[in-house]
Design goal:
430 residues, alpha/beta, UDP-n-acetylglucosamine1-carboxyvinyl-transferase, Chain, 2 domains, 30% helix, binds ligand EPZ
Length: 430
C-alpha cells in the first residue's frame, strides 16, 4: 500500500494548476444516463472516484471513450470523456459499488426518470457521519416515484414516468439537490426545488443540463425552476475547476510559507475560505489566470470558523484550515455544522504535536510553536490532506499511511507540491 513521506520546512513557490472538480465530474458523468446521445465532458480529473464511477456507469450500459491527455505544457488539464448511454442494460446499482462511493447513489434519479425503474443500494454509513438519504427519497416521491426499501436496496418505479412538482427541502443537501434536479430534467412539466443547495457544482450540472435542452431558472440560487423535457440531447461541457483543491493548496501555501499561483482557480467559488485565509495573515490576490496566495515573514493568525452550505465556509476545507492554525499565534475556534463526525483528523494532528480540544461540534485549537513529524493514518479524503498540510510545517519526517483516501480526490498531489519546492514523495510498496 502506498505511503506519502513529507520532510517539512520547505517554503512553496511557483504555480499549481487546479484540476477539474471531483464533485462536479461525478454528477456530470451520471447525467449521461439521461440521454441516448453522447455527452462529452472535458477537464475530467484522473481520480480513483472518477474511475470507480466509470465502472459503475459501464455496468448500466454507458459506453465510455476517453481521449488521450492533451499535448503540450498543459497536458495536466484533465481528460475528455465521451459518455453514451444509448441502451441502459441494467437499472440496478449494487451494494459493493454504492458502499464504496456514496455519490453513485445519485444514479437513482436519472435511472428512474429515463427507465421508469431502478434498484439502487442504500449507501450505508460513512466515516464522517451517518449521512442519511431520506431527502433524496422524499424528493423523488414528490415527483411520483413509488419507493420500497427491501434488503438494503431502494426499489423505485414510476410506470408512467415522473411528473414535475414543488419540493421544499427541510435542509440543504448537495446530493438530494443533484438527484432531484437530474430526475426533474426528464419529468413531465415543471419542478420547483426550494432550499436547493447552491454549491457551484450544482450550478455546473444545471448548466450542462441546460445544454442538453432542459430549461432551468434560478441557477446559482436556492430556488430552481425546471421545465422537464421528454428527451434530452447530447452536449459538450467542461468540468469547473475544483474549489476544494484550490482551498487545500491555498492553506498549504499559508502553512508552509511562500508564494504560489493557483492556476485556473475561481475565487468566487471559495470566497468564505479565502476570507478566512486572509484573516490568518496570508495575502490572497485575484490575478489574471487564477489566485495568488502568499505568506512571507508574518505569523499565522488564529481564526473563528463555522462550516456552512455554500456560500459559507465549506466542510470539505474544515480539516485543512484546522491543520494550518495548529501553528497559529493564538487560539482558533472551528465549528463543524454539516457532518456530526468529521473530526477524525484531530487525533492524527495531535500525533504531530497539535493542541486541539474537542467539545461536541466545536474544536478549540491552541497554536503551538512547532509540530514534529510522525507516522499518521489517513482516515478520509479531506482529513488525509490536512495531514499533508501539517507535514509541510512539521520538523522532520511525516509518513502518511492509507494514501488511497487521497487518491480518491486529489490528482497528482505530490507532484504538484514538489514542483513548488516541497519535499513530498510517494513510497510504493509491492
Ligand atoms: C456532498 O456530499 C459532497 N460529496 C461532500 O464532499 C460534501 O462534504 C457535502 O456535499 C457537503 O458539502 C460530493 O459532492 C460527491 P449533503 P452529500 O447531502 O451530497 C444531511 C468530499 O470529501 N442529509 O449536502 O452526501 C447529511 O447527513 C465529500 O468530497 C440528510 O440528513 O452531502 C449532512 O449532514 C465528502 N438527509 C447534510 O445533510 C439527506 O437525505 C449535508 O449533506 C441528505 C443529506
Amino acid at each position: 500500500m502506498d505511503r506519502i513521506k513529507i520532510v517539512g520546512g520547505n517554503t512553496l513557490s511557483g504555480t499549481i494548476p487546479i484540476s477539474g472538480a471531483k464533485n462536479a465530474a461525478l454528477p456530470l458523468m451520471i447525467a449521461s444516463l439521461l440521454t441516448d446521445d453522447r455527452l462529452t465532458l472535458k477537464n475530467v480529473p484522473n481520480l480513483a472516484d472518477v474511475n470507480l464511477l466509470a465502472r459503475i456507469l459501464r455496468n448500466h450500459g454507458v459506453d465510455l471513450a476517453v481521449d488521450g491527455k492533451r499535448a503540450g505544457p498543459k497536458a495536466y488539464l484533465g481528460e475528455t470523456f465521451h459518455l453514451t448511454a444509448r441502451d441502459i442494460v441494467d437499472t440496478s446499482a449494487p451494494y459493493e459499488m454504492v458502499s464504496r462511493m456514496r455519490a453513485s447513489f445519485w444514479v437513482l434519479g436519472p435511472l428512474l426518470a429515463r427507465m421508469h425503474r431502478a434498484r439502487v443500494s442504500l449507501p450505508g454509513g460513512c466515516a464522517i457521519g451517518t449521512r442519511p438519504v431520506d431527502m433524496h427519497l422524499v424528493g423523488l416521491k414528490a415527483l411520483g416515484a413509488q419507493l420500497d426499501i427491501d434488503g438494503g436496496y431502494v426499489l423505485a418505479k414510476a410506470p408512467k414516468g415522473l411528473i414535475g412538482n414543488r419540493i421544499t427541502f427541510p435542509k440543504v443537501s448537495v446530493g438530494a439537490t443533484h438527484n432531484v434536479l437530474m430526475a426533474a430534467a426528464l419529468a413531465k412539466g415543471e419542478t420547483l426545488i426550494e432550499n436547493a443547495a447552491r454549491e457551484p457544482e450544482i450550478g455546473d450540472v444545471a448548466e450542462c443540463l441546460t445544454k442538453m435542452g432542459v430549461e432551468i431558472e434560478g441557477i446559482g440560487t436556492s430556488t430552481l425552476r425546471i421545465q422537464g423535457k421528454p428527451r434530452l440531447e447530447g452536449a459538450v461541457h467542461s468540468v469547473l475547476p475544483d474549489r476544494i483543491e484550490t482551498g487545500t493548496f491555498a492553506f498549504a501555501v499559508a502553512a508552509a510559507g511562500g508564494d504560489v499561483l493557483l492556476e485556473g482557480a475561481r475565487p468566487e467559488h471559495l470566497q468564505a475560505a479565502l476570507d478566512a485565509l486572509s484573516h490568518t495573515g496570508a495575502t490572497v490576490e485575484t490575478v489574471a489566470g487564477g489566485v495568488r496566495v502568499a505568506r512571507t515573514g508574518v505569523d499565522i493568525g488564529p481564526v473563528t470558523v463555522e462550516t456552512q452550505p455554500f456560500p459559507g465556509f465549506p466542510t470539505d476545507l474544515q480539516a485543512q484550515i484546522m491543520a494550518l492554525v495548529t501553528r497559529a499565534s493564538g487560539t482558533s475556534i472551528i465549528r463543524e455544522t454539516i457532518f456530526e463526525n468529521r473530526f477524525m483528523h484531530v487525533q492524527e494532528l495531535a500525533r504531530l504535536g497539535a493542541d486541539i480540544q474537542l467539545h461536541g461540534d466545536t474544536a478549540t485549537i491552541t497554536g503551538v510553536p512547532e509540530l514534529r513529524g510522525a507516522p499518521v493514518m489517513a482516515t478520509d479524503l479531506r482529513a488525509s490532506v490536512s495531514l499533508v498540510i501539517a507535514g509541510l510545517m512539521a520538523e522532520g519526517e511525516t509518513v502518511i499511511n492509507r494514501v488511497y483516501h487521497l487518491d480518491r480526490g486529489f490528482e497528482r498531489l505530490e507532484e504538484k507540491l514538489s514542483s513548488c519546492g516541497a519535499d513530498v514523495t510517494r513510497v510504493t510498496e509491492r
